[in-house]
Amino acid sequence: MANFRDLMIRGERYLWKVMRNFMPRWTIFLFDEFIVVIAFVSLWFFRENIAATPSEHFTFKLFLAVSVFAATSILFRTYHGVVRFSTMVDLKKLSNSTIAASIIYTGLAILITETNVEGATAIEFNYWFPGVLGMMVLAGQFIFRFTVRSFFETFEQNYNSKKIRAFILGSDWDSILLGNNLLSDRSSPYQPVAFVAFKSNQVGKVVNGIPIISAAKGLAHHMAAFNVKTLILYKSQLEAMPKEFYDRCIVEGLDLMMVSMFTKFDENNISSAPQINKIKIEDLLGRNAIRMDRERIEDQFEGQTILITGAAGSIGSEIARQIVQFHCKEVLLVDQAETPLNDLWLELQARNTGISIKPIIGNVTSQVKMRQIFEIAKPSLVFHAAAYKHVPMMEFHPSAAVVTNVGGTKIVADLCMEFGVKRFVMVSTDKAVNPTNVMGASKRAAEIYVQSLFMKQLEKGVENPTQFVTTRFGNVLGSNGSVVPLFKRQIEAGGPVTVTHKDITRYFMTIPEACSLVLEAGCTGNGGEIYIFDMGEAVKIYDLAEKMIRLSGKIPHKDIKIVETGLRQGEKLYEELLATTENTIPTYHKKVMIAKVRTYDYDDVHPLIKDLLYTANKYVYPIEVVKLLKKMIPEFKSHNSKYEVLDVEFEANLKTK
Q1: pTM surpassing 0.85?
Q2: CA–CA distance, 55 with 66 (Å, rounded to integer)
């Protein structure tokens, strides 16, 4: 029995192969002309049965009709389409060809009838005949093409058992176009079975054999009815729909797939297959991306030499990718990490932008090396992204945090002013706001120094001063050390997923968006500003972990456990952004603000920075470094850290005084 079934399957596959290759162009042309013959003969004998006088010259008139319809078919290339993929474009060609043939045939009929030679056998035409014949031919050719298409679609359904049955979100034109494309594409792994609509007046209708269902009460019952576990959607629908809908889909067990690129049909019937990929957690974090105006900053990069420190990192590398889109002269990539720097250099070189791209292995803490770079390259714009950023690691190594985050920034900023750099843009962090850890405090110290350096230039009346600008934002999705890559690795390993605290929340921003903000805010400032951005809603990390587990096809707490490990040193439950009207100044963009922070005099700051760096470079014991950071930044209160004792001592001294 099994052998017989295998034989039948092989037979069906052979028949499918034969039929698939059975429609060369000449065959389609002959079928179309055969339809003309059938239509002519049928109409002729119908006319003979109802007319009072018989018609003559059957052969001549048939030959004339076939010739005319063949000529217009060749003219309009109606036989060039692939029959099993017939579309409205093919039907339009057929219609134009048939109308043209009917008009020509009618014209010839009139001409022949009116110009009969006296004494010769008269050839007369019925003038209504060509028009009716044209309608019959058009109907027959329509039926032929869609019969073939239906046959192939029916046959394909027998081989679609391995395809993934999917819902398509929406019932608008784009969604329907996507459904039609997936239906006609045999190579597509997806089989659309229903459109998911949110308008009640569309529910219950059918488009191209695909029903439209309602999403009002969720999709769980529809999933069971249609045997579907996949939902395909457009990227634009992510922002249009409330995030609660997608959260519910994930909980119900739907795999969310997003169309990343889809070129629509044009007048030449050309389209590209939609690229459908599994949705990323970055797309579902519930914040609308800030759209920036790139045209505002294009002239800032025109013909400029640009230096990027920390270029091999997640932020620095994305800044480089966005900068090479402009017409700059040269881009210098500075980093101490050889392999990622080499990878970035090769990636940018492959773009063939015509921009000179130079990778430079160097450490921002080396004054000699950085001076060499400035002397030789003479950059006009500097983006300073080099920094240590892991909070627990910097709690263990305060000296390293100060030497790199404060000392490295000081070296680069001083050289910018010395060599007349137009603009210095520093990438900071929201952890610099009321810092509770060494990393945040070191970045706040760097902010203070950079801002005071700009104020010094203004006090001295420096002509064309270097514009020092700071950009400050929260966690960046997908960056090195981000919680998202960590969770991905833990899920791939089968768990457990580790969360420091069940109530911990963070603000998130995508890498491209963050870097776009750095470029625009940094290049539109006048100097001395600290820019902060609307980060949207804070995300609960525990909920993020559950969502990522469900997106991987697993069930939280059943397939993969979530374990609380406790807050790490220097870590706090909630981040602050100072995003209120009391402590920010609005800008040209409603989601970009300037932080109102205390300004420091350079003459007061410089000795503190000098003492801090001297201590960080000389002493092994970190306690002295942290003491100086707290002295410089009074709002620096350690949390969940061994340095909390310094805060207790400081408060005790205040009470004694």
Answers
A1: no
A2: 18
